[in-house]
Amino acid sequence: MECKRKRIGYVNLFYIVPEYRNTGLGKQLIQYVEKFFINSNVFEYHLNVATKNERALEVYKKNGMVKIKEENNKFRMKKILSHE
Question: Is residue 13 situated within a structural domain?
Answer without folding.
Answer: no
